[in-house]
Amino acid sequence: MSSRAASVLYEVPGPRTRARYRLFGALSLVAIAGLLWYVYDQLASNGQFDAAMWSPFEYTAVQQRILDGVRDTLTAFGLAAGFSLLLGTLLATGRLSDHKPLRWAAGSVIEFFRAMPLLIMIFALYQAVFSDQPLYALVLGLTLYNGAVQAEIIRSGIEAVPRGQREAAYALGLRKSQVMMTILVPQAVRSMLPAMIGQLVVTLKDTSLGFLITYTELLYIGKLIANTTSTPHGYPYIPVVLVIAPIYILLCLALTALARWIESRGRRGSNRRTPAAA
Amino acid sequence: MGILFEDHNFSLFWHAFVQTIELSAASALLAIVLGTLLAACRVSPVPVLRAFGTVWIGVFRNTPLTLLFFAVTFGLPRVDVHLPAFLCAAVALGCYTASFVCEVLRAGINTIPIGQAEAARSLGMTFSQTLTLIVLPQAGRAVLGPMSSVFIALPRNSAIAGAFNVAELLSLQQTLSERGYAIFAIFFWIALAYLCISAAVGLAFRTLERKLAVAA
Lengths: 278, 216
Description:
The complex is a heterodimer of chains A (278) and B (216).
Chain A: H1 15-45, H2 51-54, H3 60-95, H4 100-115, H5 118-128, H6 134-159, H7 163-171, H8 176-206, H9 218-227, H10 237-273
Chain B: H1 9-42, H2 47-61, H3 65-75, H4 85-110, H5 114-122, H6 127-157, H7 169-178, H8 183-212
């Protein structure tokens, strides 16, 4: 039998079907290659691969600028990530509180900031308060939005711990804070880590909104580089995109890989303590 | 508070509101079509198509939407493709959202136990019967929840288009603040408009969920 995982959509193929799949594979390979070639050809015939287009990237000053852009992106991300996790923890604590007014207040804060478009928030903060400190507007906006989302992730993680765990802990005479800290949170963290880091990837991507409020992050630097270089074929926007997009993608993939690594470590740890059922 | 009803602001506001809805609808359409195609690629038995889908998702899910807007708005004219700003925005937003639609659909198909298809086959159903009568209805129901988050996020993301020459709600603040209105008052109305759109989408999905719920 085929070793490939069975799918609900098609059966294990026989020899004729396998041949047909191979044919489809070859055809789609040709189609994709043709598409890529067409894109390459369009770019090349419009002079996007001319040396002049790419020459700015040879200067160390420009390379330094890109590195500075990455640094500023990561600064905004680091601040926003830290503060949003802090805010998320606070709001989640509020939502899980025994006091109704506190629950209600935290709930409405979360609902409000989750529903607001992030860019509106950042723009309003930038124009009304932080006109010459775009970093503050960006970080505060990201913190409020992502904090609200993280709060919901944390809350659902804690509520997903089986009820018996909580009941058993109370039956042993633990106080609420003890139940939380020693029983619920450690178990919840493991289940909510993937969602939390997924949201951090969103935070990282959203730092590029800083571009729109003149914060000197990676995309802003990219536009600056493109605008200060004039070539016979116009400004090198496409080379800039081709340089900057992979940086963003690699940063996000690194964060995702980190998530997967942490997750696998968590699993290994739990396996050590609880031997697999026979 | 009177901003909305002074100086013909209302028609300006209404125009921006409609533009936002049109942009969201156009991108949603593109996202659904493209996302479904990508999902079909990702669950297809042909390895080349699966790899294509994986690479596409990897690129578009990890690229900031602002960068996509930037690439489409400034990049396409460089290769002699001149689209109106509205279309540029719809393409960027649609391609971005399509990758999320694809992932949701794929997850939905993966939740169907393989026994469902095996049972259908043993009843003598053809492939298309299995797909349209057994697999897709169950998958569709399973994904309504996550799908609603994708389409509630879409109008919010469309705000970025306002910074790329589309006359939608966000770009309105430029005009209004030039007319000297208080910034927070302007943003109050803009935010309210976005909230209405999000709430309408959420409501539509909840109604759909209730309609399609399996009777217990």
